[in-house]
TrEMBL record, chains A, B:
One of its GO terms (molecular function) is dipeptidyl-peptidase activity. This is Dipeptidyl-peptidase. It comes from the Bacteria. It comes from Qipengyuania oceanensis. Gene3D superfamilies: Trypsin-like serine proteases. The keyword Signal applies. GO terms for biological process: peptide catabolic process; proteolysis.
Length: 684, 684
């Protein structure tokens, strides 16, 4: 499970999550560290962590900007995360001759550790409430003006609070869809390197068919290391590695960064999801999946070079298909409707609330008209993404900090610069495929005669345009990107690179659309979201958790199976079970080293296990922590029922799937031997 | 627009259409020839055809068993239909060296005309009401027993009424979802040959992007000829070819065989469509589309060999995506809900009706559980379809006529035999792609651990199994198929052909599922459908049209544009407009002969035109007839609004798109010269 972004420019995207959640049921909730529901947990389980416990855990919890979670597990910057969170790094460090993704990777010493392009590790050091400041900045405003004022204030706060951009990052986060604004300050590590990874097939045994399923046999774990000034960083506040099997019923905490949820979206927002966004998303991604599957069948190179993209697409598709099912299940949607009705009833006498539901409905109605042009205003592909970032950055950097688009403020630029300039391989066939696909979908949904189709395509076909741009651009070369980044707007405007010219051609329309969306949708939602949050606090008190925002959260629960069509699903699998499930045929073929070491592997070692923790994509790689604060697993997936988790949590069915530290330890000792890491994991 | 079947064995499929329609609004309706609403038409237009007019037209109307409509337009068996209706025939007659689909085809003389594999032309000669007999056959029965008794009676009626199977075909049709059963007797012509076809690009100018759109520039017309005993048949009752432009507001009749509609499905059936069937269909077909697009990019051979399949998939997808939009449009579904509420209210005091809505709801609820296994119980691909037909036919032919599955009764076998034994090219890569795709989707939706997945795959992967079966089967050879057909069950059971063995392995499960679906779904629907029809007749009288069933219908309307986002869409395009729309890039590139003859073509000739006639897939190729009974066009598409036409007709927006006879005449004279056909079209 990944928090995976497809064809989405961060600065132009609109957050889907916007409303606060209803009172949480047992084990439900992705809680912020400054509002942990200790009392509720104690009521359920007779124990809850105290502030010291929470503070300690927070210091060891890591966010990976690639879209995952992780934890420090040694004093020397060693990071535990999922294999699927670093697959891109393995991939970017591979060649046809040396396929690290396929073969796995063990760095014998620090100097062998390989840099992960674009990846950055971040630890929260402070959370500050800035709600008053931000809300005051847009008092009395609406629409686009509101959004501009708010974003200017956020840019100002972020800039003022992080002066050392080399080691810190400031981010103002909108919680409860506008009910709260909090400044998160991070210690950041912009040099992250690869230390240890199993073979891809060991991590992805069962492939897409087994994804989001359990029982499961997956070694979805890897290690990275944070560096600074060319040296491993010191991380005395790391979590303690505890390679033991989980026990049925024991308490578990998952600490990480759930990416996004839309729980208690209003009915009109859910209708938009079900009626518009999800059908388009599933149809277009399914076609992309088909194109990729076939293209990868064409040669071993394509198979290798396309794998990372296909995995992301298939993972996303499974999520969106699961969401479609959830929103087409009357029993599930009935609960959501009942929750809205209850909140409305509770708020009926509260004049301060107004009618945010009607405001949201109006905003959503406006967004329905804007959605297709907005969604299809750019092609996919790494090279175009470079061009677009370069063009927007050049244009935005010429403005005062407070007038820029959110992704281009002073606090945002360092990570953007790193992503743009880090060297990594580009595969032209893959970029061409992505561009051709996305442009043909744009034409399909906009219509041939739409002016935007004509702007996107001119008189060329999607395939011709993609081929021409990908073949002729020089942006695959990091030096070319650096020259354009350093040269600013003048260099961009003078560039004869066709991809840059293309991005320049599209930019004015994209800007118009950003303004239109803010005016009719995001602006109104900022106000309505605040009102809905107020309604919720008034009705249910303030022991609530906000929708996920890819910021640090903690979820509590217990190791527990569930009942599937009358059958009890046990809490865990064993490593030995892998050999029984293997058919010899992909994706149920054994990883070679796994197979070769069958005699050495203790078949009874606990492999993967389930717990009731409430997580979602972005939580991948999160440490699973016991009540003593030690790490006993890394969360890597949810079961199939958890796919509705974007909209609501069902404790009887939703489960987190984690790989146990016991299995990782077994792999470190017997399959992918790394005694130096075993030793390092014992250091305190 | 096509009535296209994807991966669907006729005998195992369940008809979706089952309920009668509400009282028709102006121009709405696909009327049977024995119940034309002359009075209503006269009220609207001041004129309506009399019985002599209808009888004459019926005699010239042709059904093509490939899934299209057509008409006789000369006394020598010449048939007008769409190009897209005979694209498969062009394709089956092509080789890499001679691509008839691409280049078009003109037979200089009869002896050059090329046989179309699997194609049969049929003309209705008699319609007999057999409702009493059929209903009596299952009185007091339910579920599977009901379905068996009904099917036995139908087989008996068909067999008794068509003793000369070489020239006649009998088919009992279920109308109004069980309200009426009618015996259709056809004069059949099982030897249909290719006479004239334009270049593919002239017919498909604008390709998938322009499909279901208007203005349109498409020469979607072709000619076939019916043969018997090696000679063109005599068709004195042909319609009269009238190569003139349509006039705004003039009356038009479309006479053909609309394939299937689900208008006034109950709310529970619509919910099933929206929540289950359509999402799965769109997701899986989109992936197939992607696989095909990429595979066709691999070589000119693949591009040629895959085109027919891709066209079908893209056409179907556009239909299903359009239906999804319609069922996600509250304004549209609100009307359907209101119609159901009205019928319920009108029936409230009618004790004879009972509560068929509840019965349908219960049947649909049961079908929801059966649907996924039933849908995914077989792979796609021509070779597997051969194997399955051979296996089922061998098994069924050993039983008495009345005990066989519907597709295998004595009246059905001749067309099945023809489809099985006609020689045509098979492309192994394409069959492998289709099988691999469909098996991987089966595993995806069933789950890896489902017993049906294991039955379908054994321990092989979808791709391995597909490759092994396609590579090793001999069923591409018509002689092998003939030997197995002639050899019957003994030959089938003795066969070591792996595809036959595979089909044998799957057959028991498929039979179990057919029985289960009849028991819980089709059986109950047969009764409820009859009750709903009775309710409708009681409430609205009997001037109603039944849902489409790929049987002969007539729709009346007028040549008329519509208003699109405030703009008037004119009634017609001109041939000259094509040159303005052409970009030079596929699919907006001019067909070579079309381009080469630009100077000769009269740019003012009416090309394609729209009318308010109510049609749907299966109507493709239908003659558009004026009030004098002469042919002025061939219907080939609906506009984008007509995609909701499966569920309901909206006269303000839904339009039929036809190619004018004037344009076809211009092409016959100036682009693809065929003076002998021009002369033949003048003969009476």
């Amino acid at each position: 499970m990944r928090f995976h972004r497809i064809a989405c420019l961060a600065s132009v995207s609109v957050a889907a999550a916007m409303v606060a959640t209803a009172p949480a049921k047992a084990d439900e909730g992705m809680w912020t560290f400054d509002n942990f529901p200790a009392e509720a947990m104690r009521d359920t389980y007779g124990w809850a962590p105290d502030q010291a416990w929470l503070d300690k855990v927070q210091k060891g919890a890591v966010r990976l900007t690639g879209g995952c979670s992780a934890s420090f597990v040694s004093p020397k910057g060693l990071i535990l995360t999922n294999h699927h969170c670093i697959a891109t790094c393995l991939f970017d460090n591979s060649t046809s001759a040396e396929d690290l993704l396929d073969a796995g990777f063990i760095a014998a010493r620090n100097s062998d550790e390989k840099m992960c392009p674009g990846q950055q590790a971040e630890v929260v050091t402070k959370i500050t409430d800035v709600t008053g400041d931000v809300k005051a900045s847009f008092a009395g405003l609406s629409g686009d003006a509101l959004a501009r004022a708010r974003d200017a204030k956020i840019a100002e706060i972020e800039k003022a609070n992080c002066t050392d951009l080399a080691t810190t990052r400031c981010q103002v986060v909108t919680l409860f869809g506008g009910g709260q604004y909090k400044l998160y300050t991070y210690r950041k590590y912009s040099d992250v390197r690869l230390v240890w990874a199993p073979e891809d097939r060991a991590a992805t045994f069962g492939g897409d068919p087994d994804n989001f399923n359990f029982p499961r046999y997956s070694l979805d774990a890897s290690f990275l290391r944070a560096y600074e000034n060319g040296k491993p960083v010191s991380t005395p506040d790391h979590l303690v590695w505890n390679p033991r099997a989980p026990q049925e019923g024991e308490l578990t905490f998952v600490v990480g960064n759930p990416g996004s949820t839309s729980r208690l979206n209003t009915q009109s927002q859910l209708a938009f999801e079900r009626e518009v966004r999800l059908p388009i998303t599933v149809a277009t991604l399914s076609e992309l999946r088909g194109r990729l599957i076939r293209a990868m069948d064409e040669s071993p190179e394509h198979a290798r070079e396309g794998l990372d993209t296909l995995s992301g697409v298939e993972n996303s598709l499974k999520v969106y298909i699961g969401r479609t099912k959830a929103l087409n299940d009357p029993a599930f949607t009935g609960k959501l409707a009942a929750a809205e009705a209850d909140l409305k009833a509770q708020s009926a006498d509260n004049d301060a609330i107004g009618d945010p539901w009607a405001a949201v409905e109006q905003a959503v109605a406006a967004y329905r008209d804007l959605y297709i042009p907005y969604r299809f205003n750019q092609p996919s592909g790494e090279l175009f993404a470079y061009a677009q970032s370069l063009v927007f950055a050049a244009q935005e950097r010429g403005k005062p900090n407070g007038e820029r688009l959110p992704g281009y403020t002073d606090s945002s630029l360092p990570l953007m610069e790193k992503s743009l300039l880090d060297a990594k391989p580009i595969y032209p066939w893959l970029d061409e495929l992505m561009m051709g696909w996305s442009l043909s979908k744009a034409r399909e949904y906009l219509g041939v005669d739409d002016p935007q189709s004509k702007l996107l395509l001119g008189r060329e076909s999607p395939e011709q345009l993609a081929e021409r741009l990908v073949t002729n651009t020089k942006l695959a070369d990091p030096a070319v990107r650096k020259a354009l980044w350093d040269g600013g707007l003048a260099a961009i405007q003078a560039s004869d690179d066709p991809m840059i010219q293309y991005a320049l051609r599209l930019a004015p329309l994209q800007r118009e659309q950003i303004t239109a969306v803010r005016e009719a949708y995001s602006g109104p939602l900022a106000i309505a979201g605040g009102q809905l949050a107020d309604a919720r606090f008034a009705a249910y008190g303030d022991s609530l958790y906000p929708d996920a925002t890819f910021t640090l959260r903690i979820s509590y629960g217990q190791v527990k199976g569930w009942t599937e069509r009358g059958q009890e699903v046990p809490i865990a699998t064993t490593m030995g079970g892998t050999f029984e499930r293997a058919t010899g045929n992909a994706p149920f073929d054994l990883a070679p080293a796994f197979a070769a070491n069958k005699a050495k592997i203790d078949p009874s070692v606990t492999y993967d296990f389930v717990s009731t923790n409430d997580i979602i994509g972005g939580n991948s790689g999160s440490p699973v922590i016991d009540r003593n604060g030690t790490v006993i697993g890394a969360a890597f997936d949810g079961n199939i029922h958890s796919l509705g988790g974007n909209y609501g949590y069902d404790g009887t069915l939703n489960r987190t799937v984690s790989v146990s530290t016991a299995a990782v330890q077994e792999a470190l000792e017997k399959i992918y031997p790394a005694p130096h890491i075993v030793a390092e994991l014992k250091r305190r």
